[in-house]
Amino acid sequence: MNSTKYLFLLFFSSYSLSMIIDNLDDVKADWTAISDQVMGGISEVNFNLIDDGKEKFYRLKGEVSTKNNGGFIQSRVNININSDDYEGLRIKVKGNNNEYYVHLRVPRMMPWNYYYTKFYASEEWSVIELPLKSFKFSRNQNISLKSSNINSIGLVAYGRNFSAELDIGNIELY
Q1: Long-range pairs for 44-52: beta carbons < 8 A, 24 or more residues apart
Q2: Rounded distance between C-alpha atoms, residue 67 and residue 39, angstroms
């Protein structure tokens, strides 16, 4: 097999097992924005669809405050996955040079529990791959995560006082 055919097969085999959650075009998710105000905090959240003429994206923006035992804003989407074939989450993001988190939840999980990993969002668009094996359980227990169990994905600004601005251009499982 010549190298061109091999690269073609390699490229499509690595992307053929993906599930688009939202590409802001033909697949759009039903996002919900929440903040720590649900538990008495004072963080403020905005989540909007933006079309700047070149491309469309979502913007999670707000002031994260740790006052009143708070400290988060998030945008969350509920999903239904019927397969354990996915190895991770791929997101296209840009931001304001801050660290952000992804929270994954599974059925019958208490509201304060989640699987999480963090990522850095620079001022330039980048595609970040987050393997499921890199997610940790919030209660320091070693509980494995299977893609078929995930029922929500949250993009989160968390844990410290700062102005958050995270743009989301695409999100999918791979």
Answers
A1: 44/73, 45/73, 45/74, 45/75, 47/75, 49/24, 50/167
A2: 12
Per-residue pLDDT of 85-102, as tens digits, reads 999 999 999 999 999 999
Q: Is 3 helix (H, G, I), strand (E, B) or coil?
A: helix
Where do runs of H (alpha helix) occur along the chain? 3-15
Question: pLDDT-based confidence at 4, cuts 50/70/90?
Answer: very low
Q: pLDDT by residue (tens digit) across 40-54?
A: 999 999 999 999 999
Contact 81, 19 (CB under 8 A): yes
Per DSSP (E only), the strands in the chain are 19-22, 31-35, 44-51, 56-64, 72-78, 88-95, 98-105, 115-121, 126-131, 136-137, 152-158, 162-173
User: Residue 96 has which token pair?
Assistant: 């304001």
Diameter of the chain by CA atoms?
Answer: 63
| Partners of residue 51 on adjacent β-strands | 56
Q: Is the pLDDT of residue 116 over 90?
A: yes
In whole angstroms, what is the distance from residue 153 CA to residue 115 CA? 10
50: three-class secondary structure by DSSP: strand
Q: Tell which residue, 136, 105, 141, has the closest CA to residue 118.
A: 136
